[in-house]
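pipeline/complex-builder :: batch 7 item 3
reading input block
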Amino acid sequence: MTWLDLIALTPFLILALGAAALLLISAWRPAGTPLVVGGIVIALAAALVAGLLPSPVVEISGLFDGGPYGRFFTILWSLTAAMVLMISHRYILERNFAAGEYVALILYAATGMGLLSAATSLIGLFLGLESFTLALYILIAFQRQSEPAAEAGLKYLVLGATATGFMTFGIGLIYTASGSFHFPEAFAAMASAGHLRPWGMLGWVMLLIAIGFKVSLVPFHFWTPDVYQGASAPVSGLLATGSKGAVMAALIGALAGGTGLLQELESLLWVLAVVTMLVGAISALPQTNLKRLLAYSSVVHMGTLLIGLICQSANGLSAAIYYLVVYSIASLGTFAVIANLSDNSHEIQQIDRLRGLGYVHPFRCGILAVLLLSLAGMPPTAGFMAKFAIFHAAIDAGYTSLALIGILASLISFHFYLRVIIALFMVDDQAPACHPGTSLEQSVLLVCLSGILVLGLFPDLLFNLIGLILP
Amino acid sequence: MATVLFYILSVVLLAATLLSITRRNPVHAVIYLVNGLFALAIIFYLLGAPLVAAWEVIIYAGAIMVLFMFIIMMLEMVPREPPAGPGWQRWGPVALISVTILFCTLLLITQDPDLAAQHGSPYMVPPREYGKALFGKYALAVQIVSFQLLFAAVGAYYVGKGDGASRRKEQS
Amino acid sequence: MSETLLFLIPLLPLFCAVAIMLFGMRLPRLFAEVLAVTGVAGAFLLTLLLWPYADGEGTRAVLFTWLNSGSLDISFAVHFDRLAAPMTLMVSGVATLIHLYAVGYMHQDRDYARFFSLLNLFVFAMLVIVLADNLLVLFLGWEGVGLCSYGLIGFWYRKLDNARAGTKAFLVTRVGDVFLGIALMWLFALTGTLSISAINAQAATIPSGVTLVLCLLLLLGACGKSAQLPLMTWLADAMAGPTPVSALIHAATMVTAGVYLLCRLFPLISLSAVGMAAITAVGALTALYAATCAMAQREIKRVLAYSTMSQVGYMFMAVGAGTVTGAMFHLLTHAFFKALLFMGAGCVIHLAGDENDIYKMGGMARRGPGELVWVFLAGAISLAGVPLTSGFFSKDNVLLMVYTHPDPLYKIFWGVGVLAALLTAFYTFRLVYLVFAGDYRGSGTAHALPLLMRWPLWVLALLALVGGSLNLPALVGGHERLQHWLGDLAGRPVTVDHHLEWLLVGLAVVLVVLGWGVAHWRYARFRNAWDNPLSRFLLRGWQADAVVDRVLVRPFQAMALFCWAGIDRALIDATVVGMSTRMLSLSMLLRRLTTGRLSSYLAAFAWGFLLILGWLLLQLVQGGGHA
Amino acid sequence: MIVPLGHVLIVAAILFVMGLACVIARRQLIMILIGIEVMINAAGLVLVAASGYWQQLDGQVFVVFLMALTSAEVAISLAMVVYLRRLRGTVVADEFDRMNG
Amino acid sequence: MMTASALPQFPWLSVLIFLPLAGALICVLTRERADESRWLALATTVTVFGISLYLWFHAGDSSGAWLYYEDVDWISRFGIRYTLGLDGISLLMVLLTAFLQVIAVLISWPQDKHVPLFFALLMVLEAGLMGVFMALDMVLFYLFWEVMLIPMFFLIGVWGHERRRYAALKFFLYTLAGSLVMLIALIALYLIHGEQTGLYSFALSDLMRTDLSTTQEAWLFAGFLLAFAVKTPLVPFHTWLPDAHTSAPAAGSVDLAGLLLKTGVYGMIRVAFPLFPTVVQKSLPLLALVALIGIFHAAWGAYRQTDIKRLVAYSSISHLGLVILGLAAWDLTAWQGSILLMTTHGITTGGLFALVAMIRQRTGTRDLTELGGLWQCMPNLSAFFLLFALASLGLPGLANFTGEILVLIGTFQSHPIWAAIAMFGVVFAAAYMLKMVQGVLWGESKRTFDCEDLTLREWLVLVPMAVLVVWLGLYPLPLLKLLESPVLTVIGGMP
């Protein structure tokens, strides 16, 4: 580790050390608001630094990418963390969360996500993944005396640990096969010394299972609805965006170099994508709980995102990144709306509770509707451009059947998204008013909304950026 | 000699683990597992990783298993009476799927042409080299791991601590 | 420039119709009445005024282009020629009288604006048919006539039966319209134009097979409007409308449209001998059919309605026999006496206190103005074909022409026609006897007859009696004026020796006397109606309605139900819904898999792992183990 | 290397599957966690073996991270167990099934 | 294809799209001010109508080129441009849209539920429709195509009648299913074109030059056609329409029948046919068959309906079948007739739906078995009802006839049998229409109701439509002239 490395690591240092500092401060002054504000400032500062301070090294310690790709996601997840903190503020105050721990864990999770997204070696992957997973174990069960939260925490913990087992064994096998943890070498060894294939393939497959668990690919998705439902909305938001996004980002980053592996795994990924999209969409149909519905929706989205990877083309990868960003914005926005409408007694989770709410809180529900439509892929929201890009890449790469199945899943998805919108606007029930929310939360909603609309109408903004960061 | 020892230890390891995972009583399970871990530690040593072997004993068999034991005792998880009915209903499908998985895995592993490959010279990592790598090449990783431990500690404390929150609520 | 004035002939009634429609209810009643009569009378006067334009080749005038697409160029254009002129005159003239009568007839009805505007519109539509230069404009009038009949037959819409009768009229005639429409399209495809004169000019270039089909299509189209077999069922029900409307439909406007169409396109249809025979056959059969039906009817207007059908059958026979003159002659005389009869019937019904059943009448002359019986009788004898009346000459002319047709088949048609003539005489006198003879058998209270309902009858009675002079045959020293006026449009001239002609005249006289004799024997003193299967069969018009209902209406309704309930609901929607329920049951299955228990999630983990392992092995096997 | 790499891998695989079997078969939380420990140990064995095979120490270094991580995870897990026991009075995993569907 | 684009013109076409959008935004932001939003909506739609009239009057003579054209770079990554263009066909559609939207606003005046949102959505719908009719870039087209769905979905779902949520969802998913397939086909076409020429562009004019194998062309055409067939709707994809109509509020029905269905046909004319000329020619008989089945199936289906709105909805399907038949004939006259029929159908059916709404408002029912005798107490309303019904059944002299007869005559030139069969449709059209008229207007009224004849606002709605119905029935020549050159451009010279 050199000084240059340290400079390159500045954003992470800000996040991690800031988290530790807040932890220390909270020991003396456990007041909620200052800590949250501090956390937000730290996250924003990290994003700012990541954006402004160019990295002097290409790779940090042989573990992490120091280039624009890593920076991009660092900024993204830092901003996500900041927004999660914004919507957590009222949770912390109203539900007596231990502010110091909470904020510190969120920031640390963001660190882990940033690291994971930038991982260039299996060790980096492992460390980054475990960092935020550990934080999430606690964050999910953070609300004390809440049985759903505890249950969600337990499920995530056990399954996550099992997934860790798979991942480590997989890493071990890959290492056995290739003799290196570093992606390029690992891929290269796989490609050149083809005779090690069975071990290596087994390793990659086990790693894929662990990743599949994190991003909820079917059949490793079962935890998703339960955990989303049990965890508090901001944490669910983090789970849906950063947790999945960082893993996907790492996968994209890793695969951007070695497409040979993709060819091997192509048919497996094909099946996984199809099954994930369809099962996710169909499972979501009868859901009556908005958070569970969003969970299944995230399953569908991850399946769709996988299409971008399967394409094994620059088009596919940039489409996947675009999709990832757009999905994250919309998803976080929806959870923000839930948090925004909820009060300290309970969260707005049941779709029935939303009946007629659209006219009680027109703007927030309107934003929710737009975000849901974006998730569904309705023009002119960004969700449409994302799907467009993915299908474009798929057809370009000759995967028309995948695109058609994606269409089918989209169609089914529309059904359940629309159900929410129907509940919001198309019933005459007089819904009781919800919490008015705070301006902090509202600003998150506005950011998400404008992000969705701007990226939907001017996708070039993001695509150009992606073109720059993709190796 | 070492080779033979490896196979013996492997058998011990597997047998102990098998016994461990099938025990009804967690205490017994932990004890068997500790046995297995000792065998594993020696295998590590035989494979040229003395430091790892030492840590296996200290951290795993020592710290972690003791922690397990402590929690088991604390929560009084020793079953008071044996459960009714045979375990086949539960173990049957599990055994089936496990054996199938095992079969497939082994098939895959044995498919590899390098199955019997074996570098001539034994490889023994001297602690100095190890330390250099750990705090040189992997210093960043160590830092990250240390942060992990810190936050894990914070988290464990937060989760495991008594109902401070609710008590505070009651007071106010 | 002044030929543009020709447009005023149809447009005058139209303007009046629109004016009444828009302002009728807002202005005094008199305004609407005057306007209505003015519109039609104005058309009549204009026709007289513009009569010279019809001479020679006639006059064509273009108002503006309607449709223009590719080679299709349709203008609103009129063609006032020798055929159109007398027709126009008749339509507007008779309609004027009917309008006047209607003013009296409807003087208590509150919905007069709708009535008069529709009446005027009716005349307008008919005049469009008469004057149309091209087939599409003719079609406009053709359908317009249907619309107006719809509105007027169902005028008293509160009784749903009336509305139904109107709907029926519209629908049945529309079936005919379809064939006309197809003929129209075909003619355009063949000749590249829809101008009637151009089509007639090019008719010879059309292959004969096609001509036959065209002829049949036109025949079917004409059948719809003229209530010929098989599209005749609507006419009897059309009695539901007010009596002036019946008079208008039967005498001046609607039913004659079919005959007129055939006359218009005579150069085309005359090219197909088979087609002409078909027309004659339809005419003959309808004449007989309707005459038999008329014998058994109880309602005065129904008797007249069937008689119309029968007489129009004669006109068709005339066309089929190749004489436009004959058809037009009978058309004109028929217009006079049938208008007269209907309006007389209207008076009778008035006097009977809105009673329609002739078995509940009798001695009607004594309940109202005494002259009624005489004017009615004038119409009746004309219908029956009593010598020297207009009907005698025109009908005789038709039968003569049919008889003299070179094709032996026509002898059969002639026989049928003669039989129908016998029946005509019978039912006419039956009607007269039942209505006017004996004592009043009903119980209604007579309404007063306004003057306006009485004096138009005199005019018509006069016309009915002397109308024969329009085309007096040479036999009795006439000049066959209509024949000469029509010139080359007239069709086959009469070429027969006087002996035969006298023979036929004698036969006609015998028939009339025979018919009268039987009627006198049966009805001079009132006896109750026959009630046997045959009479019931005839009463119901040979069960035509029932047959149509069985064969067409019910299958159609069943088909409609099948389309909607069977295909849309049970097939398409059910498939879609079935797909979604299948999806839902699948989702329920998945939901059951999501038990919430960790063990099952972990098991899913293991199963997933196993499946992927299986895939991996498969890959390996397929890849031949190792590369 | 004292034994062929494949043999070590076979032992590790058996160990891993045993751990997996424990995880999916047992209902007691503690036992599930023990199963996970077994799985992670199997991974450690693979890493050490590979390290010897490639004559590199990276694999062994990774084992240390692995252990550190495991201990962190175990700490949280066991804290969780205690917490759940206090909350619901049970440590049987399947009894936490309030949320499903 | 571009003529005047070199000169910087005032972007009227964009104004047509963005003016309603701006109106909608203001409407939503003013929140619960009912009256203001009504007037705002009226002002906006009237202005848009005025602009479209202005565009019509100032449209120069332009054979084979766009009357108006706008082109701006938009999403360079995919070669997507913001391209709008107006030719005779689209101008006619734009005029129809602008006109019917004014009508829709006027008939929605009594709407008292969430008023600002309602009018905002109407205006968004207008923007979407305008976009569809003007877009020349396929992604832009698709964008507007989908954008139309949302407001209609809300209009049905929020302000609809019985089973409105079901109907809204059905409408949405049906049309979406079609359009998503179209999206795939579109992207595939784009990629094929890009590979061939190296120019990756979604511009319609570029894509038209793609060289496709027969199989490719068939599949892609099928993809496009599915979207348009669902929207048109062609049998057997039509079952969403009666449900949607039954549930939709008056304005929704007017827009749905008058405009949304037209986008399907317009899509075929503007997009599907020019893009795949070879396979289109081959599939014309099939298209004609489907159209013929549609004409009769829907006409028969209509006959058995007792809900008059459903009946009119079925009649729409039948009429649209005739429109498609005209297109399938591939003949100038038939095409002019089809497009004219589209326009006139929009007006007559729109009028009928407006009247149905008025009747329902007064009587509280739309059921034929419960209605009757309306003429007695509302002769004016009834007269309009009769007028539109007659126009709809194709009475000469009224609007629909001109289109129908042109379609039939045009079709007869090349396919006499099709035209002859289709001709029989008019009988059934008369059957169901007169059944409806009979059930509504004639007889004695079966229930007591608010017996109020037309109000001033309703006169304002009906009189312009009635005038148009008569005008287009007697003098459609200006529209035919407008259509001639663009139709020839599409079908390729004189037939």
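note: The first strand of chain E starts at residue 68 and ends at 75.
queue -> next item
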